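Human: I would love a firmer grasp of how sequence relates to backbone shape in proteins. Take your time, and here it is.
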Amino acid sequence: MRARPPVAAVLVALTLLASPASAQLNLPRPSPKASVGQTIGTVDVTITYGRPAVKGRVIWGELVPWDKVWRAGANEATTLTVSQDVLVEGQKLPAGTYSLHAIPGKAEWIVIVSRDTKQWGSYAYKAENDALRIKVKPGAGEMKEWLTWSVTPAGIDSGKVVLAWEKIRLSLSIRTDDAAKAMTTIKEALARAKPEDWRTPYDAASFAFDNGLSMADASAWIAQSVRASPNFWNQRMQALIAGAQGKKAEALGAAEKAIAAVGTTPMKPPADVVTDLEKSMAGWRK
């Protein structure tokens, strides 16, 4: 009987047989890599993941088993990067890069944010590396052949991260502290504003109005702007804020003053802006 070569010799031979070309072979992946990014407030949110396709398979409960840790994508671990501290479903997550995993359940999922990003899928997942564990109710949606993560803003300081695959949708809320930071910045700027400065309180009131922040603060700031120098712009904004507060008579009074100031305002308003204000006035008169 011929003697078998030592194991070490076999490994060396296989290594020598491997050509440089095969070592660098780059073929398309069945689950291509994808990345999605979105700024929420001033925070950059990025998700990088592999995109598997359904391909006629039964996904939930078979390809992706119930009640077991899943990579929430394909190939390398799915990662989430946030450039500043955020709240995910009300839980604080410091700035950094994390891996995302999930434990799918028929009635409830657990989404896991892990500090360990250097892993293939979820095979090396360890609970001691968890940064967050979040319970989420899955929802239904239209058929999605390719797994998709998306990040969508919902305001100046909020947004949603959504996982969609097959007919399941999973949504996580993201919130920043940008609204609070903006209000602090505004108040500091107003404290430094000179009595004749109408623009700073106007900008502050407009920001609060446009973003659904404190209408009481917006009303006080626009009043400060009008006292400094009444014109079409600040009296129009005064009317809109009063209208949003349900103060129709006050809104009409400010709007009438704004219309009267069209010809004397240095930055003459476009015709469509005046028309829109007149339409609002018609609604307040009802």
